[in-house]
Amino acid sequence: MSEFVAELRHTRYAPAGPTGDPEVPEATSLGDYLARRLTCAGGDLQGRAVQPSNN
Q1: Contact 11, 29 (CB under 8 A)
Q2: Tell me: the pLDDT tens digits for 25-35?
Q3: Total-model pTM
Q4: Where are the beta strands (DSSP E) in the chain?
């Protein structure tokens, strides 16, 4: 997860600016916002895996 976050952090492209999220008030791109949001969630994401669909 930390490698994924490191790749997205500080990327710059539109849209950028205020987010409306009090924990991540400003981001330079959608990728930067996601990386910052994942960093805020921190330990809540450790060890979680995507469960396959039974379709």
Answers
A1: yes
A2: 999 888 888 88
A3: 0.58
A4: 17-21, 24-27
DSSP annotation of 1 reads: -
Q: Which two tokens stand for residue 38?
A: 């994942």
Residue showing tokens 């060890």: 47
Task: List Cβ neighbours of 18 (8 Å cut-off, separation of 6 or more).
Answer: 25, 26
44-52: average pLDDT: 51
DSSP 14: S
Q: What's the full length of the chain, in residues?
A: 55
d(CA 3, CA 27): 19
How far apart are the C-alpha atoms of 26 and 23, rounded to whole Å?
9
**How far, in Å, CA of 13 to CA of 42, rounded?**
25
